[in-house]
Write a structure and sequence with these properties.
This protein is α+β, with helices and mostly antiparallel strands. The protein folds into 2 domains: 30 residues; 112 residues, no CATH class. Helices cover 35% and strands 35% of the residues. The protein has a 5-stranded antiparallel β-sheet with strand order 1-2-4-3-5. Strand 1 and strand 2 form a beta hairpin. Helix 2 crosses helix 3. The longest helix has 24 residues. It is elongated and about 60 Å long. It starts with a helix and ends in a 6-residue tail after the last helix.
Length: 144
């Protein structure tokens, strides 16, 4: 094979390998789904019109994305229960260490998961957060 032909072959490999790696990496980010392998949300009814929503990301999911998933879940629950708005009564975020190891140089490497919990109250009052606006604006960012 000539040097020119070998260069073309390497370029073809790069065009195939790089997008494949990006696809695999992006496929690891937590999406809007109930919790399972790779993160997701859980919700618990707390009484009349109130829910506790918990979202756990994985090592590839940003804190902002975890919070976005929680907001979309709040909006989704509100609309499912025939409410147009909701209030966020309380929220907290945290990082949880999932795994830590020590390499051969003595460096500690950790993988953390972002974790977000919020309490919502669904309402018909227009001073609350608009559920439909959250679905429209944030939903596409989290895979809804």
């Amino acid at each position: 094979m000539t040097a020119k032909g070998e260069k073309r072959c390497h370029m073809k490999i790069l065009f195939i390998v790089i997008p494949a790696h990006l696809f695999l990496l992006l496929g690891c980010v937590t999406i809007y789904k109930s919790e399972g392998f790779g993160g997701g949300y859980t919700d618990l009814p707390l009484g009349q019109n109130r829910y506790r929503i918990e979202v756990r990301g994985n090592g590839f999911t940003s804190k902002q994305r975890v919070q976005d998933i929680a907001m979309v879940r709040a909006a989704d629950l509100s609309l499912q229960n025939d409410f147009e708005y909701f209030y966020v009564l309380d929220s907290t975020s945290d990082e949880r260490i999932r795994r830590a190891n020590v390499d051969s140089y003595g460096n500690v490497n950790t993988i953390t998961n972002d974790y977000f919990v919020m309490i919502i109250e669904m309402t018909h009052m227009t001073d609350g957060v608009s559920a439909q606006e959250i679905i429209d604006a944030v939903g596409p960012r989290v895979g809804l």
